[in-house]
UniProtKB/TrEMBL annotation, chain A:
One of its GO terms (cellular component) is site of double-strand break. Belongs to the HUS1 family. Residues 125-153 are annotated as: Disordered. This is Checkpoint protein.
TrEMBL record, chain B:
The keyword DNA damage applies. Residues 282-292, 332-344 have a biased composition (Polar residues). Belongs to the rad9 family. Pfam families: Rad9. It comes from Penicillium flavigenum. GO terms for biological process: cellular response to ionizing radiation; DNA repair; DNA replication checkpoint signaling; mitotic intra-S DNA damage checkpoint signaling. The keyword Disulfide bond does not apply. This is DNA repair protein rad9.
Amino acid sequence: MRFRTQLRDSKTFSKLTASLSSLGKVCWMRLEYEVIRFTIIPDQGTQVWASIPVGTIFDDTTYELESNSDAINIEVNISVLNRALRSAWGATHAQLRLTKKEKTPLLALTVLASEWTEGNMALATNDDADGFGDDPNSEEAPADTTGDRGPRERQTWITQEIPIKILHESAVEGLHEPHCPDPEVHIILPNLAQLKSISDRFTKLASTDSKNRQPGVMAPDAPGMHSVSFGGAGANTAATALSTNSSPKLELSANMHGSLRLAIATDELRIASVWSDLVNPPLDPAQMTQQEMSQLPSELNRKREASEAFDFGWAKVRIDGKDWSRVLSIGRLSPKVVACFVNEMALVLYVYLPHNRDEEESCLTYYINSFST
Amino acid sequence: MTSLSLSLGPPALVRLHDALICLSKFSETVAIEAEPDLLRLSALNSTKTGFASFAFEKGVFFEAYSFNSSVNGRSGSVSLERFFCQIYNKALLSIFRGRIDRNKDTAVERCDMELHEDLQQAECVIKSYKLTYEPAAVQHAVFDKSKATSMWTADPRFLKQLIEHFSLSAEQLDMYSDSGRAVFTSFTTKITDGKEVLKHPVHTSVAADKRDFQEYLVEENMHVAINLKDFKAVVAHAETANATVTARYTRPCKPLQLEYRFEGVNAEFTVMTRGQSDSEDIPTSTRGTIPRQTPAPVPISAIRQRDTRPSVTPSTQMPPPPPRSRSIRPLNGSSTQENLSQKPSADRPVASGLSMESDSLFVPADDDRQWDEMNEEEEPQDILGWDASGTQDAFGASIRDAEPSFSKHDGSHAEEADDEMGLPPTQRLSQVRQYGLFD
């Protein structure tokens, strides 16, 4: 079993691990010849299955993998890996390899960090030199400090040894991505920074509201967005059901005519933001026939009249506000995100990282369960 | 009657505040010693493994400084012309709270402090604070610079860059020299369950070129380990002072001193080192001519118990120190640290109004932290914490108005075993060995 590679893009790798680590600590990392898979299945909350082509984060030419099963499965604390990868930011050389130390398998990250220094530390204090001069043993101190004080490249070697667990192929055989019914709606999400800050704001308002029980918390007007306060008897019943759960639940819904609505409701407040003119991407014709495709619920919804669609053809999920915030942390990689809504059941996000045209695409799939009312 | 009065200008006030913050990372209390020519603030941590001291020089640091000792009758004994006491650091810090900001005009023109034997009073232009102090035995860690066999000097910003690679949970810092490189390694002595592999600490080592140090005269392959948090506290302060740090040490299990001077302030940090002092276990030294000090008998002191208050009995003694270089001897008064440990009234305002400020709806595009999980008070991974005290509200104390119920000790009876003062290692060597670090 052997794995060794140079890092090609430690920044992307680091951001990726940062986003993954918000969902769970333990990450199953599967090293294959072409792709690296990261999977996090927390006890509660969203699972993520990521498939990253080797070349996206590692240097293809130095990538070495040897294993009887054509893959190495390891378990790693992803936030520890993330923290260690910080040492590789801006490094001239960074290598990741599998190794062992006293029977503990490790991922060893070796980094050569270079930095230009203007001479040797412009600081000089007069006092520091003495005090050691009267040392009777000073002649025994090797004069190994060179007089080289000019501007030069400062080089520092850093090694980070991250303890891991090797998983046998049989241990991961039973792990599969969840199966979902065909979605009713698929839509490209708006700018994630905006979506995240609005979602976080909603969640926060609802949680402060439920904590303090302060009447009269006003929904803020989100600039550039039309906020709709909806009221009435119908909404009230929904609100009561939602507020029984401890952490606030966001209601996310979308249709096949480019609309997405984010809403939250508690006893005291109901707010919603609606995006329109988003894209409902076409399905990949290579995957199925025209005939099959036209029978999919999402394509049926697409065919509805636009006027009719404002009332019908919405698919809705109820998701945990905090969990959603963690999921959206992937936005730091500025990906394109297609959200697939299975009404009242699940939300599946396909997250595509930006890539060069000649490269394979990196895809992270998030499976988010819908809470029932 | 002892009298002390001093005046600080705004820059010195900032310096004093920085020093107090640094001292707060070592101990809850700060010892104040006044001498005719200097004022010294120091702190000794609860395990007695770390001692921090700042000496402020009369002529350079203060706008005005006058100290008159009452012990005029005892002529000839210069060392007695001192006044010492200890004070709750939070009480001092709370005075400066909101008034010290190097980037803002804080409208403090001068800070005067006067000390009366019954009350200490600090007058800040308009406000005057009366702080209670207690007389205490001030203990100094002993360190003989002339006996140091290894030393290095480096820019604090460079040291900070090295430290930043270490994981936040790392506790100890091992340093050694290896063929032209200075190697710093972090490790954790926490015992982890063998099965929970993923909870094992990350082992980080950083090897820097010796040329990155201003001076580097260190015995080859000799491992010396110190508490990483202490080191962080020192580096953080040295960075604010923009002062080059010098480390001096001899062998593992002997004290190590970090020192720097700036603007009339002499900062010294004496910390205990760990490692293997047995000479046969040390990798063959390239400097065999160094006089070996006999390994100190390892006292059975408790394993790191930061939170429990130590019973400060002079009987838990330490390895014999190197011969003392200074004439200062700790005067006595039995320890009254317990009295000070009474917490001040714990109810202080929680910063609740802040929660909404951080989440402005539209955030600048480049801020990576916007992607972090919301609602986290302070994500430790993104903010490198320099606070080693472990108390989040280290700077938020209110002034105690209750008189502490201690009785004054006259400090005249001599300390029995003062020669044995020093710093104990925190752990038995046999325990250290199990981690295989030096095997």
